[in-house]
TrEMBL record:
It comes from Brytella acorum. It is found in: Bacterial flagellum basal body. The basal body constitutes a major portion of the flagellar organelle and consists of four rings (L,P,S, and M) mounted on a central rod. Assembles around the rod to form the L-ring and probably protects the motor/basal body from shearing forces during rotation. The keyword Protein biosynthesis does not apply. InterPro entries: Flag_FlgI (IPR001782). GO terms for biological process: bacterial-type flagellum-dependent cell motility. One of its GO terms (molecular function) is structural molecule activity. Belongs to the FlgI family. This is Flagellar P-ring protein. Keywords: Bacterial flagellum, Cell projection, Cilium, Flagellum, Periplasm, Signal. It comes from the Bacteria. The gene is flgI.
Amino acid sequence: MSRSFRIFRRIILSWVVTVVVTTAAAQGATVRIKDITDTEGVRANQLIGYGLVVGLYGTGDRLTNSIFTRETLISMLNRLGVNIRDRETQLQTHDVAAVMVTADLPAFSHGGNRIDVTVSAAGDASSLTGGTLLVTPLMAADGEVYAVAQGSLATNAFSVRGEAATMVRNVPTSGHIANGAIVEREVPFDMGARTHIHMSLRNPDLTTASRIAAAIAQHVGPIATVENPRTILINLEGRDPVQTLSRIGDLLVQPDTPAKVVVDEASGTIIMGADVRISTVAVAQGNLTVQVTETPLVAQPGPFSGGQTAVVPRTNLNVSIDKDHHLAMLNGGATLRDLVSGLNALGVSPRDMISILQAIKADGALQADLEMR
């Protein structure tokens, strides 16, 4: 193998590696359109119901406290042919609990499909572990029944109680039933008859919407129109809606994100976007600590002096200033990396960082939206 051929092969391999790395980097910054948008009419519907859970091991509602549980149990037994209305005061069972049942009815669900349900205690039950949900109709906001739930609960929790100690893992008053409800009614939606469909961005942004419209125009045709930062109108123009939306959903775009800093003061969490920029600013952070210590003294009178014992207050004050923190300069156009590095160089904590970000924003040097939660 000649030397020139080896050099040529190395050049080709280097070029191939460069192309592969560049392509992977470009694809790493893109997402599918269907992962950042929702299609008009394709949505879930929330369902809710009220029912009873039985089979609890003494951890259910106390019927003397939960009147609604007792009345529900009596009504259910009466419907089943057991008349205890005249002897309702004798009900002392602790194995029944009133619960609220919730579920999401997925789009395009048909009668006979099964969906998951969540069961939560509505009374003073201490645990739903081991219980069985009785037939519970699930209604939507229009008051119509769309599903019926029933089955054994799984709480993934346990509760152990002793005379002097109690141990609880997870939440024993909330459970889950996989495929616990059967769909009884469909939500009609004929996608095939639509001539126009709106796509909604989950994070509204004009730049992202424009990039989506451009990608659709390049690969499918000029059928997309940006109506606002959230909505894109798709004119099907006689195309098959399912096939068209399938092609559009698999297209790759690079979403744009606004420059935003989100601060959660309760937990001390700070989230900064990659496009956050700051103008030239100097930042200094120091801690002032004031310590007050009370050490009272007991003064004893001399022998046979006739005096009384007295307590003399003595207060020690100690004021300290952290001298290790210095003034730091952040040049104009500093990136998120520069900002974080500069603040870390000051040795500030997340709590102090929140105050610094608020001060930078008040000074007008933070070129981003500061959202406090």
